[in-house]
Model the fold of this input.
Amino acid sequence: MKNYFSAKELEELHLTTLPSCKRLINIKATNENWPFRARKGKGGGREYNIDDLPSEVRAELLSLQQKNKESKAQEEREVAMASLLKLQDSQLQKASIREQIVQEYLLFKESSGLSNTKARMEFCLNFNNKKILPDSSVRAVVSNICERTLFNLQKNYETMGLAGLADNYGNRKGASKIEARPELKELILGLIYYNPDISSKLIMRALRTKFGWDNVPSYKTIRNWVLKWKNENESLLLAIKNPDAWRNKFQSAAGSQSEKIVRLNQRWEFDSTPTDIMLDDGSRHNIVGVIDVYSRRLKLLVSNSSNSKAVTSITRACLLEWGVPEEVKTDNGADYASKHMRRVFDSLEIKQIFCKPFTPEGKPHIERVFKTFSHDVLEMLPGYIGHNVSDRKNIEARKSYADHIMGKAKKRTAEYLSAEQLQEFCDNWIKNYYMQEPHRGLNGKTPQSMIDNYDGEVRRIGNERALDILLSPTSGDGLRTVTKKGIAIDNAYYDSHDLAMYAGKQVKVLYSESEWGKIYVFTLEGKFICEAFCCERAGISRAEVATAKKHLQKRLISESKKIVKDYSKKYMVKNLAQEIVNQKIENNPDILAFPKPEVPYESRFLQEAENILASKQEIPVSRNLTVEEQNTLEQVEKAKNDNVISMPATILAREKYKHWKDLNERFLKGERLTANERDFYANYKLSSEYETQQTLEELGLGAM
Done:
């Protein structure tokens, strides 16, 4: 138990009988004259003996120490209990015998009345002479004992109970050194996490680099500690090295993934895996699998790659053969999360559930089937190359040795399967073996019997043709613009006369899985338009398609023009402009405007015009003109009037409107308007004439 405390240590204990900070504690100690001693070590300072502290402080401190002691003891008991559970039967047997020796010693000491040291000496002497516990079972474990060993056994028993008496528990000097220095242990575990297969030699070098040569135990000690830790932490070590293997072996299963599956086609699981078979084309294909969780019915598809096309193909087969599922469970890979597959499932109103990344336990049924298939019959097929690098090296080594023995002339030629043969093998294995085998997850029933005995409803797709259209993959995002040549896809044009009236419009495109060179075209709303063909790929004359398309265009355009022409006549559109003007006049009668302040407007051009008018001389008219002179004068006046062309009011209105638009354009550009221009610009827009001219312009009847 600690007896001396610095002010800092007292602060960290958070005693209610002392101030809450170091400075105030020192002030209190100075004011109350607490005895102290100089603190040794870096920083110096003062230390106060627990017996010299005020009574209330001492009482609280002793109580806190007692609680800590009890807490530590409880913690040690819990550790001991946990350690006890880890003991093997042989270790537990040895610990029980040592417990018997310790208890025998305690009885001997109590009855002898000797001191601890003398009691241990006397007990060891009698034990070694077989006067105490001569049983052969005891002697098989402990034949002789020394005082130090007896002391350690007693101490470990009092501290850790039965677990403290197991082999090598806390008694190795090197182990104690590692356990006593948390930084050593932490670095070792950090190195193991970074590289689970790191050697003890490399660990020792890392420790000596970090902490110095003298502060690190020997290589043997480190090696033994690492081995002991790995043996005691098998689950953790496997989780670090191989998370998937740990999940399969150790992760707690929160019930069965199929316990809520009570109907056929309630849930399908999808997955893909590469095969460990080399085919005759020198490639490794993939297997795409689907399993019905309720019945464990299975379908496998051999494909050169796992893509949306392969997934679509096996989905089609299952839909036609099994019916429509309620939901499907897939991973989040590109082949299952593609726009195409999501569109397919959405269109069929099938709920798609995505598993979290790197969680194969999310779809355990298909994963288990793949494991059974790959590690069972697949290993007996020609072209098997092993499940890992080690297997492949061994297989290649056997082949090389056989070739050497048989000689080059008789060199063995391996027989490889084709993709078609592997698919046939998968189909036969499912039909004749897998479907007929009792399944533990089905309470001993076979998948075939689960299907045969199911009396519930099964949703079926009646129109296979409609399904093919729905399953057709899209081109890119599926959106294309119809041009006068058709629809451009992959450097080819797809055309049909039914696209005649869709030029310039966007459409939705789906590929045809069964016929190369054909696509299905839909509106953006999903309405089917037509089947379009790449003429060169489908063997169709492009000229004939273009001709038919041109005739259809002309006919449709002609019919459409006639319809809108009839509408024009029906509503007398040609008179509509005048009707609009008349309506404006009726709705906007003349309104007496309030007089506005007026100022004379003068300009250089107006002044020149006035000067010209002032310079003109009127022809004097005599009151005594003859009849002939009067007639001549009337003829001259008549000719003058005939040469004057009067301007219609509508033309003047358009000019005023055009003038306002010019001012508006200048105003929007930020140009400065004169006072008269600003006055006209503001007032003209409020007039009925402006509204009329604007309406005519919108109808395309006004002058721009």
In short: DSSP finds 29 helices and 14 strands in the chain. The chain has five domains: 4-69, 87-169, 267-381+417-452, 472-560, 575-614+636-704.
